């Protein structure tokens, strides 16, 4: 879980730089330190480790004496202890000081450490809460020599999925993972404890290979001790403040400030127990963080019986009135990416809870309104929530069944009928059942026949196949929905410019309120206007977040993720998907996009991990077709790339069959994206020919440079390849060219063509040097592999130009051991010779 953080600490220490590791309680600081100590000791370093203890912080010299220093009788003062420790640090070898929880170290021990640090250059690794106001003694110890700061941020969705899988012994479903993330706010200690106690209390059980919740809560009394440990440092005023916030739930900040003093609120926020959000509707709001603490307070009898406190809150609430330039694309892209990176430091678990609470309040109010008056208008208002927010299937079915349709507004009736059709698909009755529902409605209501036919085209095109030519029925009678559906079909068929023209003058339609921006954003992406698409999608997402619009957040995020992946912004893309996953599975109109993002997020893990069953993609539904209208909606591309592909020819054959099935269904956009990805991963002639034909037929020319380079790679024309790369003008495929060169190198290594592999390795290295920003680690691999150990990598690099005996003499090991390491490396990478292994490993190393 913390491999990258541990490695960063080790790298700093190797350069003689101290490290301050900071994070909230439970963020994994002690876990990182323990791993660092273990790694240092394995490398031969001498570690002098001190653990600060809450109960010992007032005992003089308690921390320093835990080192077991050899003291002479009567010599136990500050300088005496400093002399002994300094002499130990001056011995031969690498020495490192480690202080875990420096804020619990007693003052006398701090005095010893200050004296020692002034005499020794040994680096110090220390941990502390990120919000700690350091004392003078603590700062005196820390502020000696060079120091780096390592911030442990909350875990995101995919990390939570992995951690929960390790705790429970198997993956959890999407809703359970999202709920654990939301309740824990990404805190590793709480994630582990919630998962463990939920299993202990049978709040989660394993069904169908996934751990699933058995009720709507994850709270049990087994969690009480964990929460009490987190609250141990609070003052009575701060504890009461959290009590109040538990009663109020998410509340406006101006209301909280009338009940809780500002200094207490400030302290709670500094400690990480309060998160402030900018609510577009109500202004700044605040909530307890991590949210599981609210469950702790609400579960206490003392809280339920605090009548005076409740009366004071009620009085305050009753008296509080209720509230109601020219920029370039490059500049705009920098702006939206900067905003997204700033957002990464926020708490997406608390944001997800804010969405949930907002949706739950609206859903409950609209359901109660419908129960009081079962009109079609009230039914439509309720059902529209389920198009984006989580669905209560039983409640939705009841509304569709019990709502009378006489004297209803036609648009409300159409929305009600489309929801019935979506419920039929959701229940597994298939597309035909949904189409029959809409056909019957169109025949019974001739005035709404155009809308029904447009909805049929929408469902058929999104869940089956695109007709040979877009249907024009209903455009005259219902120009809004008619043009929008036509535009969507043009997008599916990979006619992005036509799609943009079709919706340009179309009227907006209340039935599909987010269809126009979705078509606009993804058509820009499909047309190769990647930066424009990214700016549009991220701006739309920011507005949807402010409006607490889960439908808009999911659809805009799906567009943005594709643009971010295409440009090589993997960290930003993974955060964006994590923030969507944290909200749980959305409504039944956008749930296919949610599944598509699960497959995209899990693709790298599934192809490179030794335990692919832990991939996040296992949470995506499997009862879907192999092909779909949009990239990732069909599972075929994921299964192809994540599968076991040990022979390039077999990969080409399976990829070609999948692409032809996509084309046969009319899903040309998906076929283009699949063929482009497969060409980058393992460039072969059959798939490249399909890609060329698709782009030629759609009159798309923005990929011409890429196609020329890919052709040179596939045909083995290395002279032409060198010329093309020398004169390459950076375009939208900058990252894809880097992937293509690496994919060609990997393919030649697996095929045993060392000459071609050497040529591509040279070309790839030169391209990386010319365009370093584009050359990041490959996102996918067509061949399953296990990362080599440090020793295997070291030997593989020498295997291309030294014999086993020479390698053994240099490393001080036996020739048989060298042979075993090379054999293991060949098996893991799939290379067919030691020379191919050398080329592959050498080219994967970071530039020196």
Describe this structure in words.
By secondary structure, this protein is of the alpha/beta class. It contains 42 helices and ten strands. The protein has a five-stranded parallel sheet, covered by helices on one side. A three-stranded antiparallel sheet has the order 8-10-9. A two-stranded antiparallel ribbon has the order 6-7. Helix 5 (107-119) links the parallel strand 3 (95-100) and strand 4 (124-129).
Search tags:
848 residues, 5-stranded parallel β-sheet, 3-stranded antiparallel β-sheet, 42 helices, flat
% residues in beta strands: 5-15%
Low-pLDDT runs of 5+ residues are: 301-305, 319-327, 775-786
Shape: flat
SS class: alpha/beta
Query: What's the total number of strands?
Result: 10
Q: Mean pLDDT across all residues, rounded?
A: 84
CA gyration radius, whole angstroms? 30 Å
Write the layout of secondary structure elements.
Blueprint: H1 3-14, E1 18-23, H2 29-42, E2 46-51, H3 62-65, H4 78-89, E3 95-100, H5 107-119, E4 124-129, H6 136-142, E5 147-151, H7 157-168, H8 174-184, H9 188-200, E6 204-207, E7 210-213, H10 224-230, H11 236-248, E8 251-252, H12 253-259, H13 262-271, E9 274-279, E10 283-288, H14 292-298, H15 301-304, H16 307-318, H17 329-343, H18 348-372, H19 376-386, H20 393-402, H21 410-426, H22 431-444, H23 449-463, H24 479-492, H25 496-504, H26 515-526, H27 530-546, H28 550-567, H29 570-581, H30 591-608, H31 636-642, H32 648-664, H33 668-681, H34 685-697, H35 704-715, H36 718-726, H37 734-751, H38 754-770, H39 790-798, H40 804-811, H41 815-829, H42 834-844
Parallel strand pairs: 1-4, 1-5, 2-3, 3-4
Antiparallel strand pairs: 6-7, 8-10, 9-10
Helix pairs in contact: 1-2, 4-5, 5-6, 7-8, 7-9, 8-9, 8-18, 11-13, 11-14, 17-27, 18-19, 19-21, 20-21, 21-22, 22-23, 23-24, 24-25, 24-26, 25-26, 26-27, 26-28, 27-28, 28-29, 28-30, 29-30, 32-33, 32-34, 33-34, 33-37, 35-36, 35-37, 36-38, 37-38, 37-42, 38-42, 39-41, 39-42, 40-41
